[in-house]
Amino acid sequence: MKAIQLTEPCQANELVPTEVNIPELKPGYALIKVKAFGVNESEVTSRKGESSADFKFPRILGIEGVGVVEKVNPGSSFKPGQKVATMMGGMGRAIDGSYAEYMLIKEKNLIPFESNLDWSILGALPEMLQTSYGSLMQGLQLEKGDLLLVRGGSSTVGLMSSVLAHQMGAKVIASTRNQAKLSEMEKLGIDYPVLDDQDFVKRVNKIAPHKVDKVLELVGFTTLFQDMKLIKQGGFVCFTGALGGQWTLNNFSPFMIPTGVFLTSYAGEAKDLPTKYFSHVLKLIEEKKLVVPIAKVYHGLDEVGAAQANLESGKFSGKHVVVL
């Protein structure tokens, strides 16, 4: 089969398909014919050789994907021809991932679904939907009527989280440092797209004079403590991402958290995205009640390098999706 297999760090334009063996079926796994996959920041990090210790060369990249079951073991609950989605579980890092014509995935990490949506839409969903849903429900315990601040709102997870939160009945303030992205955020139905500059706090205070109920933190420690000053007592802050690059803080003290504010985090897996909810979102998309934020669609493994380069440029809003 063809795959993007890395043997060492490289540039985006060096991501070229090569011939490798189709994975052999193992107990507890299913062989999936890949139809589409999203391109993620963590895969750019891995390509540069900057991933954590669980990543080793050689490796086929790709932490998420959708496709069709090709082969299963006797007694499996899955059947050949069935549509499935998957994400995380070590994909593209500890084990080979989705930048390939076939991928070998543990059955427990597969989400079955039925849909006639285009593969480009389906391929955009798994990782950003799982991260967004997990952050909102497990991290923030989001409720109808909440006022939510999404810091890093023009990122793929930020956009998806804003769209889902709005669908759940919350009001959303979403930040971006790129003024050109504000109109796109507004088109997605985000209630309050806000420019993140020196007047950011003033803008949020004007929208929420009594402070916000929940904060989804996607920028990291560079904005975390500023966000904590914008939240009500009894509110939740969920640390999910670090687009600013700072995941840790030296000399951290619990007393840096304001009294009565709850700080949590989210770093989940496929099991955190219920099959029922995945199907619910697909139905909302089919009924045109929810728009998936897609930046650009690419065709074939030959275009993976362009997809990563465009993602890295920061000039696009939404998900970059490769369809095979």
UniProtKB/TrEMBL annotation:
Keywords: NADP. InterPro entries: ADH-like_C, ADH-like_N, ER, GroES-like_sf, NAD(P)-bd_dom_sf, Zinc-ADH_QOR/CCCR. The keyword NADP applies. The keyword NADP applies. Pfam families: ADH_N (PF08240), ADH_zinc_N (PF00107). SUPFAM superfamilies: GroES-like, NAD(P)-binding Rossmann-fold domains. It comes from the Bacteria. This is Zinc-binding dehydrogenase. It comes from Limosilactobacillus rudii.
